[in-house]
């Protein structure tokens, strides 16, 4: 029971950090993109839309794949590999 509780705590903290990181970058992203487009607000808005759409599309497309991998190899290895990939992203 103790190891299950510590495992859930690890997952909770990891997901909390992931959501906090996304919550920090999303408000800053339009300004960051605008600085790359030389202040062109139209281009910055378009690129921001692309980023958000691609993020949502990848979640939609890869959720079934990760679910199938989780069924085949177990939740723990797939979750750890996913968290490792998210850690590399940040």
From TrEMBL:
Q: Name it.
A: Uncharacterized MFS-type transporter
* Main localisation: membrane
How is this protein situated with respect to the membrane?
Multi-pass membrane protein
Cellular component aspect of the GO annotation: plasma membrane
Q: Which InterPro entries match?
A: MFS, MFS_dom, MFS_trans_sf, Sugar_transporter_CS, Tet-R_TetA/multi-R_MdtG-like
The UniProt transmembrane annotation reads 7-28, 48-69
Q: Where in the cell is it found?
A: Cell membrane
* All residue ranges annotated as the Major facilitator superfamily (MFS) profile domain in the record: 7-90
Q: Which GO terms describe its molecular function?
A: transmembrane transporter activity
Organism name? uncultured Chloroflexia bacterium
Which is a Pfam family this sequence falls into? Answer: MFS_1
Q: Which family does it belong to?
A: Belongs to the major facilitator superfamily. TCR/Tet family.
Isomerase keyword on record? no
Keyword Transport found: yes
Keyword annotations for this protein? Membrane, Transmembrane, Transmembrane helix, Transport
